[in-house]
Amino acid sequence: MKCLILGGAGFLGSHLTDGLLAEGYSVRVFDRPNIAKHRHFEKDEKIEWFEGDFTNRNDLVEAIKDCEIIFHFISTTLPKSSNDNPVYDVETNLIGTLRLLELARTNKVKKIIYASSGGTVYGVPNEVPIKESHTTEPICSYGITKLTIEKYLKLYHYLYGIDFCVLRIANPFGEWQRPTAAQGAVTVFLNNALKGKMITIWGDGSVVRDFVYAGDVTEALLKSIPYEGEEKVFNIGAGYGMSLKEIISEIETLLEKPVKVEFVESRSFDVKSNVLDIEKAKNELGWNPKTTFREGLKKNLSWLKTLED
Ligand SMILES: NC(=O)c1ccc[n+]([C@@H]2O[C@H](COP(=O)([O-])OP(=O)(O)OC[C@H]3O[C@@H](n4cnc5c(N)ncnc54)[C@H](O)[C@@H]3O)[C@@H](O)[C@H]2O)c1
After folding, report:
1. What is the C-alpha separation between 5 and 119, in angstroms, rounded?
2. 255 with 194: CB under 8 angstroms?
3. Of 169, 122, 242, nearest to 16 (Cα)?
4. 3-class secondary structure, 117
5. How far apart are CA 166 and CA 233, in angstroms?
6. SS3 179
7. Residues 92-112: tens digit of each pLDDT
8. In the chain, which end has fewer C-beta atoms inside a 10 angstrom radius, N or C?
9. Which residue minimizes the CA distance to atom 9 of ligand 1?
10. CATH classification of 175-209+240-274+291-306 is 3.90.78.10, yes or no?
11. 10 CB near ligand 1 (under 6 Å)
12. Contact in structure between 16 and 214 (CB atoms under 8 Å)
């Protein structure tokens, strides 16, 4: 079975590529031309490489041919930047996805598996852990767009029978996450600590998040391929929360040294606590995150040590 990973050269896409290849799937990766790939792709690996722009219909037409399963991992925005320019967010992510859905319909795609965001679609939680049935009141454009895409997936399933699965992913961390990016606290903190650089925390460090190892996210993605049940939307996280201060403490334990931390003013779009209830994914997909935070951190550290400055 041929799988297309849109945005497959990125962090989660690189993990999924490994997972799909290990399970014997044919993999086609679609990503922008000339980008620095997160993972090194060997010549003898059975991956088809398609370069193009998600917002260009013609590029998608070529990429989608003969693919039965599509993993949609492209996001042109981050929670913060999406509020700076919601028009761009909608034009690129939402309109781009609608074009994809139209092409999926005419190309007889079986299933679309979408990387949504457990951290933003719910907004300020009324209670934690957050179940999938929690109200959805995003406080950033990124979350509204993700949620709208979820609704369109449901519509295309209803109208045209294209199956879909939405994974509302919490805060993934692990190898191939860019250590200098604006997102991904664990990897950014760990890399700074490793290099003896200052770690900047917005707020007082009490903010709690659900950090899930990217290899475990891949397991959930793989399990959603054969899943044929009625449920379509799943929270994917570790199922427990950790504060940023606890992350710092774990890093200090792992590196066996104190790290430099500065606290700056908190950001309005950062909710105080976000922890996902993952019971539905456990029961329906038969998935369970296996990697402890400490194990994930160790793997991440080994990879970061291989990077050149
Ligand atoms: N990393 C997280 O914290 C997180 C959490 C929840 C959900 N998600 C979602 O999971 C998905 C994957 O996240 P990631 O962390 O792997 O992101 P990433 O940025 O590492 O990967 C995304 C890939 O999409 C590609 N891309 C972006 N715009 C494109 C375009 N116009 N045309 C072609 N390719 C384009 C990028 O080049 C990149 O390789 C995203 O949709 C993201 O919103 C991520």
Report:
1. 22
2. yes
3. 169
4. strand
5. 5
6. coil
7. 999 999 999 999 999 989 999
8. C
9. 115
10. no
11. yes
12. no
Does the active-site annotation cover 142? yes
Closest to 202 measured CA to CA, from 276, 124, 268: 268
Q: What is the pLDDT of residues 202-261, one digit of tens each?
A: 999 999 999 999 999 999 999 999 999 999 999 999 999 999 999 999 999 999 999 999
For residue 261, give both structure tokens: 């931390």
Enumerate the domain spans of the chain: 2-172+211-237+278-285, 175-209+240-274+291-306
Compute the residue count for the chain. 309
Give me the phi and psi of 215, to 5 degrees please: -65, -35
Provide the residue type at 256 as one letter. Answer: E
- Encode pLDDT of 5-46 as tens digits: 999 999 999 999 999 999 999 999 999 998 887 788 888 888
Q: Which helix (H) or strand (E) holds 145?
A: helix 141-160
User: What's the rounded Cα separation, in Å, for the pair 113 and 167?
Assistant: 7
Residue 80 near ligand 1, beta carbon < 6 Å? no
The residue annotated as part of the active site, out of 25, 142, 156, 213, is 142
Taking the C-alpha atoms of residue 285 and residue 270, their distance in angstroms, rounded to an integer, is 30
How many angstroms does the Cα of residue 173 sit away from the middle of ligand 1? 13
State phi, psi for 221 to the nearest 5 degrees.
-60, -40
Architecture of domain 2-172+211-237+278-285: 3-Layer(aba) Sandwich (3.40)
For residue 43, the model assigns a pLDDT of 80
List of E strands, the chain = 2-6, 26-31, 47-51, 69-72, 111-117, 163-169, 171-173, 199-202, 208-209, 211-213, 233-236, 242-243, 261-264, 273-274
What's the Rg (C-alpha) of the chain?
A: 19
What is the spatial distance between Cα 202 and Cα 209, in angstroms, rounded to a whole number? 13
